[in-house]
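Researcher: I'm preparing a figure for a lab meeting and need a structural model of a single chain. I don't have an experimental structure, so a prediction will have to do for now. The sequence is pasted below. Please return the structure as tokens so I can convert it later.
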Amino acid sequence: MSESELLEEIVAKLRSLGLTTYEARAYLVLVKRGVMTSTEIAREARIPQPRVYDVLRGLEEKGLILVSEGRPRLYRAEEPRVALKRLLEAIERRIREEYERTVNMLENIITRSSRTSSEDIWKIESTQKIKDKLLEVVENAEYELLVSAYKHVLSDITNRLKRLSRRGVSVCLVMFDEVEPQKYVDEHRFKATKGIVIAIPDRKNALFVTNWYNPQQVMPSGFYTENKHLLRFFTEYFLHNLRDLSKPVYVAFGEKVFIRKFVNITRAIDMIRILMREHRKIHVKVSGWNTRTNERIVVEGEPVNTVYDVYNSIARITIKTSRGETITIGGWGATLEDVEAEVIEVIS
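Model: Understood. Here is the structure written out token by token.
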């Protein structure tokens, strides 16, 4: 690359940081030449003399040059690493401020809108957009994440899953490929099938992707929804068709994990049963709704019995409180139990 080509490339990079062409040329000349007058800068940087004072004022406001007092005024470039870092921080501040303003404006529009998107299902067209949405959905988990994946999908989300586990999120991973035990999740299971890639955080939303088994040959189709009926369908499909009918590869309950919060009662039951087999003292705290009054309720106590009958769709935890009361806990849509659980915390 010739010197002139190199200088033009530097000018282009300075422009990408928000400088005008004249500002970029003037700053570059000052970096090369040192202390200069405005007339010298105009001549060297090929800037029209009537424009040079505005250009230098702009550089001074951006913190890129120093200006002396007296006549004639002298100009000197600030050290590039310091000056450009300061410029970058100013750009980042401006972008963050614009981001906050824009998000607030959009959220106000959503609030005023009479139409909500919670009942819709959205198709995601490209593979990259599917990957981006998957990362977003996975990161959204607060208590529990259900996720099924192929090897190539797992490689994209491994770091996010590890981060969730460090935060105490209970991850249930069903793999459609055989891989070594993923010991950073609570459950790793294997099901030999060409299944649907699913990610469901806390029953808040769901992403499911079909035809993602061979990304080199088949274009996947992604779908995202917050529809409660579809969420229930895909949650039950995951728990009963994928999880219950898959082979356990690694389970951390009772080995590394002794406290977790669940939104799905069947996984809470599994953890309780494992801890019971180890004769550990267990405490359960449940927040949810009183099925008789439909009021919010929090109950806690020692689990004395669990029932999980997949064929009759029964999942129940019975606890005894410190006052000797016996309370039954049900899952999503429970009516026969005393409490419909929203979050179940198991502590040992």
